[in-house]
UniProtKB/TrEMBL annotation:
Family matches, as PROSITE patterns: ASP_GLU_RACEMASE_2
Annotated SUPFAM superfamilies: Aspartate/glutamate racemase (SSF53681)
MF terms in GO: amino-acid racemase activity
Keywords recorded for this protein, A-Z: Isomerase
Family: Belongs to the aspartate/glutamate racemases family.
The protein's name in its UniProt record: Aspartate racemase
InterPro entries linked: Asp/Glu/hydantoin_racemase, Asp/Glu_race, Asp/Glu_racemase_AS_2, Asp_race
Sections of the chain in a coiled coil: none
């Protein structure tokens, strides 16, 4: 089993889910007392969140590359970034460290294709919904990507940063997400990508009448598949 380096803490709420799903998946695939061979670096998300909203992406890239280098020196053989938004830096990490990043959007794209879904709604932070780094990886595989309206994007973003990363789960926020998803169903969307690793804390398969792509779970299982592959 290859040793994975996890970059977490963005937020720790979703990193906890990554650690659980990864270890459950290893146990399921290998049996016995097997668990994940992994290293974890966890950021203080306060610093990351401030830099994100200031648009200090170069500083964020340098922080990410530095910690991946530390994981590499500690023996990590590939990298798992335990958040959607910071995959913006995935190419820079690979170029600067020589380590493969198991990309969350590629894993999600594979799962969308597997379920024969052609048109999806992408939910996430504004950085993910409005940027091209995530959407283009889906579109290159023939998947049509829809993003919410500007107003709805702000609602989604604010709930993530003001509530979900703090572990706050409000019924009215859940309903806001469901309403936004239902609008997209009216536009013939047949799947929704929960493109922020905190959103599955609020929304699950039972909440809406279309395919739900939980990127935390999809990415975690893809990381395990890579770790145990030859």
């Amino acid at each position: 089993m290859k040793k994975m380096g996890l970059i977490g803490g963005m937020s720790w709420e979703s990193s906890l889910e990554y650690y659980r799903i990864i270890n459950e998946s290893v146990k399921s695939k290998l049996g016995g007392c097997h668990s994940a061979n992994c290293l974890l670096y966890s950021f203080d998300f306060h610093e990351i969140e401030e830099l994100q909203h200031k648009g200090e992406w170069e500083k964020l890239k340098n922080l990410m590359v530095n910690e991946v280098e530390n994981l590499k020196r500690a023996g990590a053989e590939f990298i798992v970034i335990c958040t959607n938004t910071m995959h913006l830096m995935a190419p820079d990490i690979e170029d600067n460290t020589g380590l493969k990043v198991v990309h969350i959007a590629d894993a999600t794209s594979d799962e969308i294709i597997k379920r024969n879904v052609e048109k999806v709604l992408l939910l996430g932070t504004k950085f993910t919904m409005e940027g091209s780094f995530y959407r283009e990886r889906l579109e290159k595989n023939g998947i049509e990507v829809v993003i919410p309206s500007e107003l709805d994007r702000q609602i989604i973003h604010d709930i993530i940063y003001d509530e979900l990363i703090l572990g706050i789960l409000r019924p009215e926020s859940k309903q806001s997400y469901i309403d936004i998803i239902n609008k997209a169903i009216g536009e013939h969307v047949t799947g929704v990508v929960l493109g922020c690793t905190e959103i599955p804390l609020l929304i699950n398969d039972n909440d809406v009448a279309i395919e739900v792509f939980n990127t935390t779970e999809i990415h975690s299982r893809a990381a395990v598949d890579f770790a145990i592959s030859n």
